[in-house]
Amino acid sequence: MADSPVQINALIVDAADPERLAAFWSELLGRPVVGRMGPYVWLRREKGLGLGFQRSGEPRSGKNRLHFDISSPDPVAEQQRVEALGGRRLEEYADGGFLVMADPEGNEFCVIPDGPFELDDEGRADYLA
How confident is the prediction along the chain (129 residues), in pLDDT tens digits per residue? Predict the structure, then answer.
């Protein structure tokens, strides 16, 4: 396959309160807020990828069609840090073996280990066992 001139430049998360959501993700990822323009709040760009939060007048509804996977050397300790920052664990996904969390506005994300982990034939993880 030939190289494409198209790249993902930034990920934008719709938010009822972009300042609050940007503060949560800034602390979680260690990426400071670096800009505000119109309805957007931006975190520091890293490895070429921007992360922004856009004010949206529409409430979030249903399950995310796209989610972040963040890695940690200790997912269980990271869960405690996420909760201290205002996130929460989504127990309804516990049967899948993944540590599924939600940010303060309910956007789902997974905390996965830095290293490899196994998946069974159904796609369930084993790293929390």
Answer: 678 889 999 999 999 999 999 999 999 999 999 999 999 999 999 999 999 999 998 777 777 789 999 999 999 999 999 999 999 999 999 899 999 999 999 999 999 999 999 999 999 998 986
**Could you tell me the pTM of the whole model?**
0.90
SS3 category, 116: coil
Tell me the domains of the chain and their CATH numbers. Answer: 1-56 (3.30.720.120), 66-129 (3.10.180.10)
CA dihedral 109, 113, 119, 123 (to 10 degrees): 0
In whole angstroms, how far apart are CA 6 and each of 9, 35, 79?
9, 24, 35
